[in-house]
Amino acid sequence: MRLMPHALLYRSWLAAWLFVPLLAGNALAQLQPPQQQQQPLTLASDPAVLAKAALGTERGTMVVGTLHDGQVAYGAAYNPEPPSQPRAIASGSAEQPMFEIGSVTKVFTGLLLAQAVQRGDLKLDDTVGRLLAGKVDGLSPAVASVTLRQLVTHTGCMPVMADGVTGGAPLVEQFHAYDKAMFWAALARIRLTAAAPPCEGAYSNFGMALLGQLLAEHYDTSWGELVRARITEPLGMNDTVITLGDKASRMAPAFAGDRRQPLFDMQAYAPASALRSTAADMMTFSRAILAGAAGPLGPAAARMLTPLARYEGAEIGYAVMVRGSEGGRRTYYHAGVTEGYRTLWLLAPDTGEAMIVLSSNARAPMQSVMLAIGKSRYPVPTAEVPIDAKRLDEYRGEYRVTRNKSLSFTVRSGRLLVRETGRGYSALTPTGNDRFAVTAIGAQVMFRRNAANAVVGVSLAQGGSQLDARRVGDAAVQPE
């Protein structure tokens, strides 16, 4: 059986998306049925409606749990539809189906670090070299200098994967065999993506796995045991596990499109992506985090959400993505993808809301739900205002966001269009002076001028994040 190509899986893991891709094109608006477009999806929506929108026409099972007005609710969608909807979904009983939560596992690793820092056992500035002194030989000075803060915020210049987890055998087989001895050997020969940390945030499964293994070494136990003893057992999350045992029959059958997929067992990479869970357990986890310092997890729950670094036009806490500004409306989330499952976990402390979306199809079109929620929490002006078409030429050009990403603007049929590197063009709606909107995805484009009134830069705001770009070229390629 052929598995998802390695590059595609890497990109899926890299896409820590809530409201991205930033410029996915107007086709995303067509993902929602007409009645849902008339009634936009929000965190207050019926979870069964959210589940149907997030599963689309793909095969498999989709379960959504929401917390709204202090009440937890569950909904599900199936393809094909079962003869009758299982009672367990609606009741939140212990017999809910189970799913791989993929990189949402990283949030648990982040919480373990927050607990360690809160206790005074570790410091964010502790380095890999200090923590592995006498245990792993041959670390380069650059690798040894990487700190726990950098690992938990993806700013440690770590590669996406270590050598030995690329090409060749299917990923499922590689991860199953990749043990700690292989992991430490890879660390001793690994090359960072830059000369020395910190780096601009770049998602790293290896870096997060390393953080989890460092925590396990510090406490002389396994990462899985730390999760059980410090998170799942205290919270009564009995269905959040690595090893399934007698729970194996409860796993929702996994798909990638129409193709069945195997389960994704792993050893050394467990802190990055190994957990299985249910919607009920993840809602228990969500409520514990929202309860903050007064809740069952104590001050570490609040610490976990503390922003530590800039990341993708916004911020990141203890492995938790943060959108929104300080003192304003902040959203905390993480997403996950394995070869047969897709997951989104989200908290909105300002309204006391939470959501978990669990899919047994890695290709479930969850962007429609994510974008709708992003638009509802971070609305942008969309009312069109008149603009002289001749002025649009002032905005033509390429604007550099990062070394590998840029925004290109061009004009066609009297409309300004924009595209992100590697994506298609989207039409912009003028909403004010030097301001435009991509209405389908709730994004706002704001051009900047210098003292001479020349356009020199642009900012793109969406879903509580903002990317700034400087103008580097005058002409964009004309779209076909």
Your description of this structure?
- This protein has 480 residues and is an alpha+beta fold.
- The protein folds into two domains: 32-377, Beta-lactamase, CATH 3.40.710.10; 389-473, Lipocalin (Beta Barrel).
- Helix content is 28%, strand content 22%.
- The chain contains 16 helices and 21 strands.
- It has helices at residues 6-14, 34-38, 47-55, 87-91, 105-119, 128-131, 141-144, 148-152, 171-177, 180-189, 205-218, 223-235, 270-273, 279-290, 299-304, 367-377; strands at residues 60-68, 71-79, 99-100, 255-256, 259-260, 276-277, 309-311, 314-316, 321-323, 331-337, 342-348, 353-359, 397-400, 406-412, 415-420, 426-427, 429-432, 435-438, 443-449, 455-462, 465-473.
- Strands 16-15-14-13-21-20-19-18-17 form a nine-stranded antiparallel β-sheet, with no helix packed on it.
- The protein is globular, with a radius of gyration of 23 Å.
- The two termini are 38 Å apart.
